[in-house]
Amino acid sequence: MQVFLQTIVGGVSLGAVYALVALGFSLVYRTMGLVNFAHGNVVTVGAYLASTFYLSSKLPFALAMVIAIGVTGAIGLVIERVLRPLENRDFDLMLIGTIGFGIVLDALIIMIWGATGRAVPSPVPSAPIDVFGLRIRTYDLVVLAIAAVATVLLVLFLSRTKRGAAMQAVAMDHEAATAVGIHVGRSNAIAFMIGAGLAALAGGLVGPLLYVSPALGGALGIKGFAAAILGGFGSIPGAIVGGIAIGILDSFAAGHFQGYSELVTFLVFTVIIMIRPTGVFGERTVNRA
């Protein structure tokens, strides 16, 4: 039982990171109806930026994270601005455009930081905490707390602010939002900016858990994408539930099927999606023009 609970704790911590990635996917999709295939690459950029400012510039980890989020938020704005002329005109080109941005970001990552990875030490004491016989890493609790705060702030922004309400209106009906004077382009830009910021937050947080390398964003992007689908693409609660579920599943697969954990995780994911194609919270459909 202790091993079982220990595995769940580790899975929830990693699942919180997947949930942040899934939230970025879902936020852009619910606002624009677009899957941002450069999202995983932005995760990698965020991870490298945070680790660079933390290790090389010797900045406090929290400040390094804030700077990384700011820089990647600007990258998100650039991506949206380049894609804006194609909105509601050529959806396929928009998708191809996000793939192109991903390729460019990959090339820039290797040009700036090289093809080798780096290990990031934990910014908090590494000694685990004993809770009812469970040994929990302090950094796992930090990840959970930061992810929870970020999620709450996002939900409050969407539900309690005028800009968030405007983004919700754009998500529900693009034409009606335009008719009542909502600046759709601005809402889309904010969605991209916040999505990129969430990607950087996930990348920065996962650095001390995993190994920062050019391939990091690909792995996190795929699992975050799977989490978003599992929860119901475009659903904020679904992204959270899907991320935690993928994290726990991944943790159990790694413990029982060493060497085949990725295969087992996605086989189980595939079976679940075959049973429930819309995901856990996927009944609601985002209407697009």
Automatic annotation (TrEMBL):
Chain segments annotated as transmembrane: 6-27, 34-55, 61-79, 91-116, 136-158, 190-212, 224-248, 260-279
Protein's name in the database: Branched-chain amino acid ABC transporter permease
Family annotation (CDD domains): TM_PBP1_LivH_like
Keyword Nucleus among record annotations: no
Pfam families: BPD_transp_2
Keywords: Amino-acid transport, Cell membrane, Membrane, Transmembrane, Transmembrane helix, Transport
InterPro entries on file: ABC_transp_permease (IPR001851), BCAA_transport_permease (IPR052157)
